[in-house]
Predict the 3D structure of the following.
Amino acid sequence: DTAVSQTPKYLVTQMGNDKSIKCEQNLGHDTMYWYKQDSKKFLKIMFSYNNKELIINETVPNRFSPKSPDKAHLNLHINSLELGDSAVYFCASSQRGTTGELFFGEGSRLTVL
Amino acid sequence: GDSVTQMEGPVTLSEEAFLTINCTYTATGYPSLFWYVQYPGEGLQLLLKATKADDKGSNKGFEATYRKETTSFHLEKGSVQVSDSAVYFCARPSGNTPLVFGKGTRLSVIA
C-alpha cells in the first residue's frame, strides 16, 4: 500500500494552461505539505495544511492554490502556467508531535513548454 | 533564517570506500537534525535523525553525530555499495517550517 500517493507522476503542458496535481495519504496524519524541487534538486516548502487548515503559505505566486477537502487529501492547482513552474512537486505528510519526520510521495514532474 | 549547509557534490566513490558528507547548521537553539535520501525516481525518505547534542543517528550502515561544538551533523558510512547511489539531504526544522533542506549531495558509487 502506497502511503503518500500523487497523481499524475508526469505532466507535460503548454504555457498558459491550468493544471492540478492530487495527493492522498493513508497514514492518518494530520498535516500535509507541498514542496517544490527545482532542476538543481533544491527543495523549498510551498504550503502546509493541518487538518484542512492552511498554516504555511510561503512566498508562492497566487497562481498556485492548494485545496484540502479533508485531512487525507491536499491538491495543488496551478493557473496560467509559466516556464519557470517546471519542477518536481512533492507532497508529504506528518503526524503532529513528530518534528521533522515527513513521509514523501514519489513526486510529480511538471514540464511547461 | 535557520538553515543547513552541506558539501557540494557530486561525490563519486568506488564500492567499499568510506563516505563522508559534511553538513553544518545555523546555531539558533538546539534543533533536531535529519538526513534524508532520495533514490533515483523516488521521493525523499528519512535516513536517520538526532534530537539533541551528542546523539548519534544510525540506519542502514550510515551514521551521523550531532556535534554542538562544531554545529555539525556529518553523514558517514564505512563501506558504500552501488545501491547507496542517491542524493542525500541534510535538514532541520525552522519556525513553522517542518524542514528546511540543504542543497543535496549526489553520491555515485561505482563497482
Observations:
- Residues 56 and 65 of chain B are 4 Å apart (CA to CA).
- The mean pLDDT of chain B is 93.
- DSSP finds no helices and twelve strands in chain B.
- Chain B touches chain A through 25 residues (CB under 8 Å).
